[in-house]
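Supplementary Methods S3. Input chains for the assembly prediction are listed below.
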Amino acid sequence: MIYRILIIEDDLAYKPLWADILRRHLGDHIADICWAVSAEEARIQYEKSIATKQYFDFIITDVFLAGSDTGLDFVENIFADDQEAPPIILISSVDKEEVEDIVNTDSRRVEVLTKPINASQFKEVMNRITENRRAI
Amino acid sequence: MSVDTSQKIVLITGCATGLGKALVETLGRNPQYKIIATARAHRLDDMRAMFVESENLIVRELDVTNESNIFSLVNEIANMWGRIDVLVNNAGICYRSVVEHMDRESEMIQLETNYLGPMSLIRSVLPIMREQMYGQIINISSVSGMVSMPTMGSYSASKHALEGATESLWYEARPYGIKVSLVEPGFINSDSFKNILLPKKAKLSAKLKGPHSEYYKSMSPFIESLMKWAFATPESIAHKVERLIEQKNPPLRLRVTMDAVVFSFLRKLLPEFMFHKVMFLLLPGSRLWGHRSYFGNRVRSKKLNGSAPI
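Predicted structure tokens for the full assembly:
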């Protein structure tokens, strides 16, 4: 099973960290990690993935990003267009419950994790995502 | 068409609240003036309830961001009264946001209202004033037109732009007998000046205690308390604007509140490198900015030291 992942994060210091973490969880099953520093750029990459049918298996996004939009705007836009959008892991340095209220995580496949990310919580989220994918 | 010059025709923008409202009330008591009080469409009912229209006072819709609205209003005034003597560019809005949280759309709204709108109005009335070899343009700027404070970047930029263009206009209009002035109020004791706008990122950050929320947390109460304790009121400033209209040789810049006078003095007194350092130290909570200590999260250094446990 091969994964395509989109990471939206404006702090480039996280780039090697994310590559390392994802490799630790998914082994060699990563086809591609795409990187966007703004929600606007992420939206372009997401639309391109649909046009080329190279779908993302999941998306990881920070809340506060470069550009005008936030990670929450990205989630809103994606789910407004497509209720079957890939699961999104929202990484927040702020209060988790308030973020969950704003993005309405009950009715969407959105997981919220707070920074600094706890390894076991991240593993749980990854397990849920990978199991769901196998079930599909 | 014979033109009556016994009264001055005064066009004022943004008259529904604050200084604009006070200006209409103050000038409206003086039979020497015919006033065109304007505001955006959604404030017109309030305006008509506040002001009794007469031969010396008319209320009209004007959205300063809509150029065709400006052209047709100026056309109407010119047809009705044959001249325009004074333009007071008062309408304005204020976004409060750190630079990082502003977005292009909010920047454009800010600039269109505080700079591009007044410029369109000036371009509309200037040929008329030039032909009549008389006129006065008063642009309501702000202390933010000379000093920029944190969270006021976009507003300050719009006022700096207005100040720059007004200064050029002063030279260009002078040979035609057109007087040009900038009025620089600072903190005013009025509820209407608390009507500030937040772009969505600033709103979210303030709500979630996100990046830069410490600026909003310290600056907003500081500005509000300065407004609360300010001596200047919209009415006191309106009287100063009335005197400015009556002056034969009005100054280019008129600082109308104590803090505006003090800031202007400090800017001249202190060398630039010192001015900003002193301001930084004096602003409340400034030592905590960037550390996000309000919620105990010194993000960057910890992350780069490898303590992010992922």
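The first helix of chain A runs from residue 14 to 26. The first strand of chain A starts at residue 3 and ends at 8.
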